[in-house]
Every structure is written in C-alpha cells, then in structure tokens.
Amino acid sequence: MSETTNPGLEGVIVAETELSDVDGEAGELIIGGYPLEELAANASYEESVFLLFKGRLPTADELETFRTDLAARRRITEEVRQVLRRAAADGAPAMDALRMGVAAASLEDEGGERENADVDTTAETGSGPRADAIRLVAVVPTVVATYWRYRRGEEPLEPRSDLNHAANYLYLLTGEEPTPADVRGLETYLNTVIEHGVNASTFTARTVVSTDSDLISAITAAVGALKGPLHGGAPGPVLEMLREVHEEGDPEGYVREKLEGGERLMGFGHRVYRVRDPRAAVLSDAAERLYAQSADADFFETVQAFESTAVDALAEHKPDRRLETNVEFYTAALLDGVGVPQELFTPTFAVSRVGGWSAHCLEQLEDNRLVRPVSRYVGETGRTWTPVDERGV
Ligand code: COA
Fold it and tell me: Ligand 1: which atom is nearest the Cα of residue 232?
C-alpha cells in the first residue's frame, strides 16, 4: 500500500469513463467524444443528455421520443410542493430547498423498495436506475422553479410539455414564454456544464451508488456537494462582484483591494485547469451574442474588461500558480442575461449537471466496485481506559 497521503485525491484516477475528458494542461474538454465547442451551441439539452445516457447522439425519432418521455415526467407531487413551500416560507437557501425536493422525489413511487441490486439497469420505466435517471433530469427544473415561485409569493406553474427542457425551465420561473435567444443562451450553458469528469459532486454520486444505493440518494448527496462555494457556489458572488465593479468603475482598485486583503477572486482558478477553462470561452461567446441584443450591453463590456484586469493581477499576485478564468465567471453574465435570478445560479448548475451525475451513476453500476479508500492513522496509540471521574484534561 502506498505511504503517500493525498488529501484532495489530486491526480488519482478513480474511474474509467466514456463520458468526458478534461485536459487541464491543454484546456480541452471532450463530452461523449465531441469537443465542447462542437456540442455547446448546437445541441439541445435533451440531445446532450441522450448522448451521455446512450453513448451517441439520437436520431430524429429517438430525440422526439426522449423529449416526450422527459416532458411526461416533469411534474412533482403535492407533497413535494409542500416541502418546497415550507422551505421557501422559512427562507431556506435555494440549494437546501433543491436537496429537500430531490430527496422527496421518491414520493412519486407507489411503494416498493428502491435499490439497484437485482433490478434491470436498462429499463427506462419503473423504479430502476435508468428510469430514476430520466426522472431526476426531468424534475430538477420543476423543483427549483416551484421553490422560486413560492419564495416570491407566487403559485407554482404546471410544466409545459410543448416546450423543450430549457424553455420550460425559463417558463416555470417567469410564467412567460421565453425568447429564442434566451432559450439558446440557457441551452448553451446547460450543455457546457452538463459533464466534467470526476469533480467533487460527481465523485460523491458515484460513491453513493457504489454501495448499491439508489440514484435519488446519490443525486441528493451530489446536490449537497455542489452547494459549497469552492465547487458550484461561485457564480452568485461573481455577479455581485461584476455589478459592483460596473457601478463603481474601478476594476484595478477592486482587484487590488481584494488580493491585498487576502481574499480570492471568485471565477478564477481551478483544481484541474492550468489555462483558461475552455467552458469560459464557450460561455463568453454565448454571452456576447446575447448581450449584443440587450439594453445591458455596457455591462458585458465591463465583464470583458474585468477579466483581463483580474488575470493580469492574479499572475502578478501568484506568479508560480496559473490562475485563469474558470467556468463560473461567464456563467454569471450569461445566466443573468437570460433572466435566471442570482439566487438560482447554483441550482441552475444542478439543472444541467444532474444529467452528468446520473450518467456517471449508470456507468458506475455497469461495472461496480465499492468506493473505499484508506486513511493513514496519525493519532495516539497505546492509551489505557480511565473511569470518567478520574479523568483530568
Ligand atoms: N483568487 C486569489 N487567489 C487564489 C485564487 C483566486 N481565485 N485561487 C487560488 N488562489 C491562490 C490561493 O490562495 C493559494 O495561495 P496560497 O498558496 O498562498 O495559499 C494558491 O492560489 C493555490 O490555491 P489552492 O486553494 O491550492 O488551489 P485549488 O486547486 O485548491 O483551488 C479553487 C481551486 C477553484 C478552489 C480556487 O482557485 C478558488 O477558490 N477559486 C475561487 C472560487 C471559484 O471561482 N470557484 C469555482 C471553481 S469552478
């Protein structure tokens, strides 16, 4: 057994996957065989999910069937709504509400145990992993939007099966049919962040199903992992930072103050990428197209100018560590541009990533091995028992 301790598991290969390849040195991301740049602005989100679940893009007929199938599973039960109503009334953060809503999604079942052992993993109906995967992808937008409507004192809307996945999500949030430009912008975002190797939340999901637990438990745990600001929680603070800089007009001063105060600049740095995150380029292009048609075009100019100021300052601040733009930086601008409220940025990441999480769970189950690393004991040894009333500190 190796004597080296690797607390962040950096560089440790824990799985073989056909879902995505992240090349942190070259700044390249391949999803299901396609360079991100091929997929992001062309595919519908439904096509990306199909690609991950089946290993290839669908034919026109298959896509239609898959769309219909997903749309038919978007509704949540009254009991789940009650959980979300209560979460909203208590002011619970959106990611906590999503965790509660996903966990309660199994209330949809009419009894029966949910476990992976002995079930047909290829069945797309019933309560097996593949059916759960499709259902989870379908309901996450409904859970997020239902919570949001309650938070705003509005009644939730019924999902619309005539709208595609991205359009239906925007409709559920706002009650209005979104413009094609907003749908395309959101869809590009959803395709861009759907899958990204064995990041913290994906590893969490794989670990849960490796015990032969079920997908709803795995995705509930993954939502918990995504919530943290070091993983999925950054785009909200990025938007606040960008709005502040846009209003005050002093990007250099802002960056200097943060770095001199020992703070991190949100939207920069990555555990794997040592160059600009390729997702930043795709999202930046999408945001540029969107803002070109918007009244907020000058905000996007601030965003672009801020990026170069920040990258230069970070290079000076940490010359031995390449801190480049990560995915969250342009996520903030793009999601704000399509009308997703800031509080829902991380849940909207989950609206997309649930496709990747679920695909990883299915892949793990195909050739499962219980995930069980080891730790190195560094504590005391040889202690002897002392009765409680004889113990000093
Ligand atoms: N701003 C300023 N300094 C940063 C930084 C940032 N965004 N990211 C890393 N650093 C600094 C750290 O302070 C650390 O300095 P030190 O050695 O003096 O302590 C050094 O760079 C290395 O950081 P480390 O925490 O080891 O890198 P990591 O690989 O664990 O971190 C992130 C990756 C993403 C957690 C980190 O870059 C970060 O916190 N970024 C901001 C949050 C963010 O955008 N998250 C979304 C990720 S997609």
Answer: 46
